[in-house]
Amino acid sequence: MHRIFLIAAAIFTLTTPAIAAPFPTVLPLREQAALHDKLLADRLDRVVPALMRGQGIDMWVLIAREYVEDPVLATMLDAESFHARRRTILVFADPGAGKPIERLTVSRYGLGGLFQPAWNPDAEPDQWKALAHLIAARDPKRIAINSSALSQFADGLTLSQYQGLTAALPPAYRSRLVPTDALAVGWLETRTAQEMQVYPQLLQITHAIIAEALSAKVITPGKTTANDVRWWMREKVSSLGLRVWFHPSLSIFRAGQPAALQEDEIIREGDMLWTDFGITYLGLNSDVQQLGYVLKPGETDAPKGLRDGLAAANRVQDAVTSSFKTGLTGNQILAAARTEAIAQGLKPSIYSHPIGFHGHGAGSSIGFWDNQAADLRGEYPLGRDTAWSIELNARAAVPEWNGQEIDFRQEENAFFDGKTVRYLDGRQTRFHLVAPAR
Predict the structure, then answer these.
(1) Residue 99 sits in which domain range?
(2) Which of 45, 36, 32, 31 is nearest to 77 (CA)?
(3) Which of 179, 200, 215 is the last residue of a domain?
(4) 87 shares a domain with 129
(5) pLDDT tens digits, one per residue of 378-408
(6) Which of 104, 110, 317, 394 could form a disulfide with 312 if both were Cys (CB 3.0 to 4.6 A apart)?
């Protein structure tokens, strides 16, 4: 387990993926589980108290049924608990006076020792009554529940479970229920120091798979199709004991073709390749877009026009990351980044988003591919200790392709510590190159 922590500091300094490096190690499942629970325990100790006290919440109640998990509750389960069991109720209670937050579960299971069981079915068979007794005994003034019209991440309490909760509570306690987005979103978006010691390895693995996929090891020009590469990526991830959180994309950009080619189109020499790929590891997610080029005989690099297009996308990335400032909304960051990029003569489209427990994570959106103006989903303020998918494109003409305009798409994952943004495993500044067939 310790070997993951030792490499983290060096990874942050990279400016390009280490394509020729040995393939990163994936921990055995038993070690993954131990590390998962270690990270979770640290989060529960640190993140929950800060959020509850920052929002003036005395108690936070999360309720979920098996296979209908609240997005927050699902991330609080230990490594051996894949789902809620029957009905799982988690309760965080602040006793005040600076004492530790109580972590209780009104269910039959202790969840890996992370929560103290607080229900004895032999003494009180009714789970709802047991919860009501627990609440009354602590007499909280503000009881947070996960119900939200704005954020799907804070809307995990289903109607039937809300009805069960309110029916069990005396009227005085029903009036103390408060929906709050801030707890759910804050829990999901906040990255801890321990998580940030291991998150870079996930990006190392992601980059290594992309590098192999966009190489002659996988692609034979004139034979391999876009779908062949997509399914190779799926098989590669499966062989590592990991999973993708969306089906990989692979598109072919070709001189003279007005639109990207996909599916069963055969890859040819002179094609530019684009992939969108993300995996899940240790409960965290990656989401990366990179570019490849299939060399023609005699070529040693992509044409200058394509290289300039990638460089333009890098400049848009710089415009986005330089606009990050704690307290700004996603809409404000979008406007600032677009202003800066356009002033440089670039043609940007910015659609960046938080990442972490979910690929498209909780927090503020910074633009959408189909909306480059302010959006209600971009009104949440930027917080420190958050991870981001810096996703965007720069549209540029390629002289070698008769001035054809191409969207040069890039997506890399980064961490914002409140002052600076750093990429977790560098970013792409050079094309992956596929040697021509011999």
Answers:
(1) 58-179
(2) 36
(3) 179
(4) yes
(5) 899 999 999 999 999 999 999 999 999 999 9
(6) 394
